[in-house]
């Protein structure tokens, strides 16, 4: 994690994106909107999770890339909302499909910025969200999100239960999950029991199928954009 601190800063902003050039572009947009902010940059979900767990972290805004390493669809967004519910999140994405933008808001984001947006537009979005508004590109304002009834149930999971669920989705066995999380297999089984109850499913397979509603079919959106360009 790279941290850039400036004395006297009025705002602290986290930029979570694995692409150095775009982190620079976002940093410039944030500075344009806020003047002299304190910027903290991370390049993976693990780094973001560690930063959010820091009791000294009192960020005012998170700019989050959906395709960052360790993320699966909206999972990083949902996890962030569960551990830092008061932290406004703006999703930034190279994919500009209107339903993705709307779905980001459905999963708890306060805004959505396409990566193709100008620095001025990014600054506008940042200012709007920090003033308590929601911001979304005009082309996406009336779009219908790809809704599911899983998000509210997922939000009831603890952060550790969410990690276990994502590991189940990756096909890991209880023993592997226990090793990765440095917990006992009995604790893993207890988490899985709680996950099944909270998600109102009966088997691990059903939980994994439900979790895949967080994934985004980027290929499907690419096909939509191609079809739109040919009409």
Protein described:
The protein is of the alpha/beta class. The chain folds into 2 domains: 139 residues, Response regulator (Rossmann fold), CATH 3.40.50.2300; 64 residues, Arc Repressor Mutant, subunit A (Orthogonal Bundle), CATH 1.10.10.10. It contains 11 helices and 6 strands. It has a 6-stranded mixed β-sheet, with helices on both faces. The N and C termini lie far apart (44 Å). The relative contact order is 0.11.
CATH superfamily of the largest domain: Response regulator
Q: Do you know the CATH architecture of the largest domain?
A: 3-Layer(aba) Sandwich
Radius of gyration: 18 Å
Q: H/E element string?
A: EEHEHEHEHEHHHHHHH
Q: Assign an overall shape.
A: globular
Largest sheet: 6 strands, mixed
* CATH topology tier name of the largest domain: Rossmann fold
Number of strands: 6
Structural class: alpha/beta
Outline the low-pLDDT stretches: 3-9, 217-231
The count of helical stretches stands at 11
Mean pLDDT: 81
Q: What is the CATH top level name of the largest domain? A: Alpha Beta
Helical fraction equals 40-55%
| Spatial order of strands in the largest sheet | 1-3-2-4-5-6
Counting structural domains, the number is: 2
Strand content: 5-15%
End-to-end Cα distance:
44 Å
